[in-house]
Design a protein that fits this description.
Elements: H1 10-30, H2 35-39, H3 51-82, H4 99-127, E1 136-143, E2 146-151, E3 156-159, E4 167-171, E5 176-181, E6 187-191, E7 196-200, E8 206-210, E9 216-222, E10 234-240, H5 242-254, E11 260-262, E12 265-268, E13 271-273
Parallel strand pairs: 1-5, 4-10
Antiparallel strand pairs: 1-2, 2-3, 5-8, 6-7, 6-9, 9-10, 11-12, 12-13
Length: about 270
Amino acid sequence: MVSTRPERTATTLVRRGLAKAGVLGTAVLLSGCTVDEALRMGMPQPATKEAPIIEQLWIGSWIAAWIVGALVWGLIIAAVVLYRRRPNDGMPKQTKYNVPIEFLYTVAPLIMILVLATFTWRDQAELTKLTSDYTHTVNVVGFRWSWGFNYVEEGVYDVGTPSERPTLWLPVDERTRFELVSPDVNHGFWVPDFLFKMDVIPGRMNKFELTPNKLGTFAGKCTELCGLDHARMLFDVKVVSRAEYDAHIADLKTKGQTGVFAQGRISTKAGVTA
């Protein structure tokens, strides 16, 4: 019986590949991404001095993925074109194994993983490095289902509820150390514009340092499924000038929000109140 299906030629395969690329390009254009957003691979505009480290790792990973993808698809298309079955071909030669090829597809992925892991370890060490030149310390208390912020040096605090999200104030261009604690379950402290996230774990204090370098208000949220009102565990970060920061601290003192918010309670020198 003679097949009536048209033979797939190299030209046909190339045309189909170009058509798929055109569809992908059209999808990107219709998504509404700007050129700047596309170049940053969907990452938000960095708002801290340290954020470009993550941005470069993200973009580099995408470039590596595209290169590997192009190489793999190139090999697949080449194999289809060069070794496709032609009319009057008999049974193809059977082989049991090919040591060079098996060695290649075993070692090549291992090398790629090690390279990516090396850059990840390097950047993680830089981002989690603690120094002695920070200006402020903010003790972040994640509890079900909101946040408390202790401004340690200033001796004041702010706390929110699921219905009234709290705002963390930070002075621009000043390095701040964050100390993350939780009295109940795991939470996750994440500010997308900072390109940084760290877990908040009961019985353990996680620390990191950042230097906000962009004025504005940025949204933050919990990244761990922590219970009923997890989706409402939101907060804002307001990066302001030093004068505005000092005025906010003075306002908290005027409101009587002095002491430390810890484990869902307000503790002062006079004692602890629920």
